[in-house]
Amino acid sequence: MVFAPLPSTAAWRHELARDGFEVAYFQADGSRSRFIGCTTAVEEGATAVVTYDIIVDADWATRRAKVALQSESGARRVLLESEGHGHWRIDGEPAPWLDGCLDVDLESSAMTNTLPVHRMRLDVGERADAPAVYVRMFDLSVERLEQGYRRIADADADAETDADAGSREPRSTRAGERYDYRSPAFDFECVLVFDESGLVLDYPEIAVRVA
C-alpha cells in the first residue's frame, strides 16, 4: 500500500490518560524523514514538556531519536541510535534488550504510532508484531514494549462500528485506515484510525487529531 505525502505539520489533543497537546513538524531529507515535535502535558497533577527529534530511513526504521524532558524534577535528555536493523545504543551505550525493535514509541506522543504503520505497510487482514523502544514521559526511562497491529477494514464516513474488530471503537467517524492495536504489557487494545498520510486521527483514551 502507498501513503500520501505527510503534511508539513499536525497536532493532537491528549485526553483521558492525561491533559495535554502535541504539535509535530515533518521534513523530507533525501532518503530520510525527520519529525520534530513537542508535547506539554499534565498527568495526576504532574506537569511535563517533552520535545523530540526523530529520524527514520527510507524503510521507515528509526535511526535516531533525541528526546528531552523538562519537569519539576529538572531537565533530562536521552539519545537513541540504531543502525536500522534492530540494534540500539542509549547515550552511546549498547542496549541488547532492545534487539529486534525497529521503531521508537514515546509515551508522550501520538505521532510515533505513524512510524510502524508506514514501515509495515499492511494490507487489510494482515497483522504484524512491532516491538518498540518505549520512552517513558516523566523520567525518559527506556523499555522494550511488545505491540501488535492488525489492519482491519477501512472506515467510511457512515461507519461507526465493526463487529469483527473485537476492540473498543474509535470515536471519530472520519474516513481512514483502521488497525486493531494491542499492547499486552498494558493490557490495552483499541482501534486506531489513520488518515491517508498514515497519521493518527483517533487514539481512543489517548489522543485525537485536531490539525
From TrEMBL:
It comes from Agromyces albus. Residues 165-176 have a biased composition (Basic and acidic residues). Residues 156-176 are annotated as: Disordered. InterPro entries: Glycolipid-bd_prot_put. Pfam families: Glycolipid_bind. This is Glycolipid-binding domain-containing protein. It comes from the Bacteria.
